Each structure stands twice: as structure tokens, then as C-alpha cells.
Amino acid sequence: xxxxxxxxxxxxxxxxxxxxxxxxxxxxxxxxxxxxxxxxxxxxxxxxxxxxxxxxxxxxxxxxxxxxxxxxxxxxxxxxxxxxxxxxxxxxxxxxxxxxxxxxxxxxxxxxxxxxxxxxxxxxxxxxxxxxxxxxxxxxxxxxxxxxxxxxxxxxxxxxxxxxxxxxxxxxxxxxxxxxxxxxxxxxxxxxxxxxxxxxxxxxxxxxxxxxxxxxxxxxxxxxxxxxxxxxxxxxxxxxxxxxxxxxxxxxxxxxxxxxxxxxxxxxxxxxxxxxxxxxxxxxxxxxxxxxxxxxxxxxxxxxxxxxxxxxxxx
Length: 315
Prior knowledge:
48% of the residues lie in helices and 15% in strands. By secondary structure, the chain is α/β, with parallel strands linked by helices. It has a single domain (5-311), classed as Aldolase class I (TIM Barrel, Alpha-Beta Barrel). The chain has an eight-stranded parallel barrel, surrounded by seven helices. The protein has a two-stranded antiparallel ribbon with strand order 6-7. Helix 9 (216-223) runs parallel beside helix 11 (255-271). The model has no long low-confidence stretch (mean pLDDT 94). Its cofactor is Zn(2+).
């Protein structure tokens, strides 16, 4: 069942869990996420990135496919466009039919970020679409998003930003990274930063980007089959779960699913070199993707079992 993102956030904040946002780019990845959500009876957000938008031959058509698929499950599903680099791209996403759009002005000055986010908010709200903005910078590179340094979100600036733009949720920088970074240990997620932001914005939905944890077993599963994935570190799964105590109600999780899929496909191709039917190895990849999403819902976000549509909870 398709719902507005603000309804997803409201229940997550009330019951102290996080809604996982998972990027999809084709029918297999779409079905993997929705099947996982159905089995876990979990709310979920389907996300498309600029990379996915450029990958599919017809972006509007793919959004319609997402809507049809999401309408066929019993759990609440939001549809969001992640990391639009320009106001124009965000407005195009709104016109394509998404329920939420994220404008990323984190690379801009505070004043420019306010200006362009405000333009997106005005355009989107008149069309019933929620807007996620970003303040602060995450290090790393993932799907056309790059920053070579970290800049934690300033709590006071966050309060002013939300008041000036009218955005519906705010992606903050508190320790996570896009795609991970080279480090000996997991990165610390700075709860004190989240706590100070929450104090300035009580009851306001906060978002963590770069919330994939890059667990070693997923990297090893790829490399054992001939891959050369570099070992990277990010914040731990347990720290992501704790962030729900400080206003985080949405977390973007992408890379771990890619690793799970790639490891499974490589294994089939290596162990069954006579197979050439894509359905054989893509099915295993999809099942691995689904399994990883189910793990995230049950063990990381805490969203399993929170099907408030089935419960009849009003948001």
C-alpha cells in the first residue's frame, strides 16, 4: 500500500524504530525489497537515485511500475527520489510521480541551500509531495554523490534551515559515510550530535544517509568468488539502531544489498559455469538481496512487525 512519507515518519518516531530506504533500479531489486517487507510485515521506502534514473530507459514508466508493485503489498510503502543535485532535477522527479523527493544542497552555501530547497519545497508541497533536505556533509563516494571531507550538521543551523525552508525531513551528518571509508575499525556514530540536533528540532524527522554497514562477510563473499572489493568501514549496525532514540526515522541502506547480490551471482557463475540462463543466477542474486533487506528490517532498523496499515493505526 502506497502512503505518504510523513505518515511513515510519524509512526516510526512514535514507536522508536527506523524505516529503511532501499534503492532499486530494476524489477528484481524492486521485488526483492517488497517481498522482504511483506515477509517482515515492515514499512519500507523504495528509493531511486540519479544513477537509477539514468539507468532505466524510461524514468516515468519505472515510477509507474514501482507504484503498481507497491500497491500490491499489505505493508505501508513510500516512494522517494534520493539525492537530486539540482532543483530542476527534484521538480522533474515530482512530476514523474514520486511521493517524496530529496534535494541535496549540502555542497552549497547555507544561503544557497536554503534558497533552492525552499523552491523545491514550494513546488513539491503544492503537488502533495514531501521534501527531504540535507545539511552537513558525509565523506565518501556512492552513485554520483561525492565528498572528500566530513562536516557534521550544526544543530542551531539545522533549526534555522528547517524554519526557513519548510522541508519535511532533514538528512544530517553525524558519522556515517557514503560507501564507507578506509579505517581499521567501524566509524563512530556521534549520538551527541544527533541528541543536540533533536533538542533543537524536537519531534522533527531526521535521516541518516550512508547507513550501510559494509559487514566483512558480505565483502568476503564477493572476494572469495574472484571479486576485488576493497575493505571499507562504516558505522556499526547497532549504532544505526540506537539512532532511533534521537529522532532518526529513516536510514538509507544501499551498498550492503549490492554486495549480497554480487556475491550470490558470482558464486552461481563460478560453481555452475555451464549455466548461461540469466534467470538462474539473477534469481539467486535477488534472493540474497531480499535476505539482506530482511536482516536490516529485523536486526538494524527495528521496523519488522510494524505494519500499521494492518493494525489499523491512523497517522
